[in-house]
Design goal:
Structural class: alpha+beta
Strand content: 15-25%
Shape: globular
Bound molecules: adenosine-5'-triphosphate, magnesium ion
Largest sheet: 7 strands, antiparallel
Number of domains: 2
CATH class of the largest domain: Alpha Beta
CATH superfamily of the largest domain: ATP-grasp fold, B domain
CATH topology of the largest domain: D-amino Acid Aminotransferase, Chain A, domain 1
Distance between the termini: 36 Å
Order of helices and strands: EEEEEHHHEEEHEEEEHHEEEHH
Helix content: 25-40%
CATH architecture of the largest domain: 2-Layer Sandwich
Length: 296
Amino acid sequence: MTAILTTSLPLPLHSRGKVRDTYRLTDRELLMVSTDRISAFDVVLPTPIPDKGRVLNQLSASWFKETSGLVRNHLAPDQSIPSELLQGQPDLEQRSMRVMTAKPVMFECVVRGYISGSGWKDYQRTGSIAGEGLPPGLRESDRLPEPIFTPATKAMTGHDENISRAELAKRAGRELAQTLEGLSLSLYRFGAERALERGLILADTKFEFGWHDSEVILIDEVMTPDSSRFWDLEQYRPGGPQASFDKQYLRDYLEQLGWNKQPPAPPLPDEVVAGTSARYLEALRRFSVSYARGRV
Ligand SMILES: Nc1ncnc2c1ncn2[C@@H]1O[C@H](COP(=O)(O)OP(=O)(O)OP(=O)(O)O)[C@@H](O)[C@H]1O
Ligand SMILES: [Mg+2]
């Protein structure tokens, strides 16, 4: 399988995001293609990561199926890819998903079960995360007493901005805010429990929702290494940062390089490409291996 930075299908382009190329398949359906692009610090890198698109797509597809009893999602009932699109694109089936077109809700729904990343920085400064009061004395990577919902605006360009739950209610309306929070927390709980069965901790994750036929449905991607922090349960040692399946390895490489985090991003050496690809594949492998419940 070759690594792909940009796709070019004979369909009208709906959008090209940092990772996914989305095409209009019909009036009501999109074809979302996960490329092998990777971004760090919101900048897309010039080097593709083999297998990444396929891993993201397969993990999302399986979560959409597993969580369909909790919330309706954008997965189209018919997942077949028209054969004329598959010509010369042998891996298109593995990296793409047919979805119902939705109007994205312009807020990112972040749930944190553990304290890490920007949440940890916020807590050290303010004793809370995005205004959510927390007990004193938490260490980096500690489990929170309860998972918390910390929404952010979905910036069209640049970085997303964290907002408080009160601010979300003000901007989105109380009813929508409550729906987003309730669905996000139940999805997180479901995912975190499943992850533990596979020897993984789902430290935090981000969901996106959209409007479809006057209903709020789950869209985008679900509980992948791009939208989540996964940690190995056996190596979990709170009190510092955790080794993870997410992009931390790549971020660490870029940090020591001294790149100013402004485009253009530097190309990645083969070793970092291989290490990153291996981490995505490992996440997929772990999710397809069931751990005995008794172990965790
Ligand atoms: N069912 C859907 N209908 C319409 N848009 C969708 C649907 N599912 C996902 N999207 C949107 O498609 C895009 C997916 O591409 P990608 O994840 O690469 O974008 P991105 O760079 O992360 O952009 P963004 O900052 O908007 O999330 C996102 O903007 C997402 O909101
Ligand atoms: Mg995205």
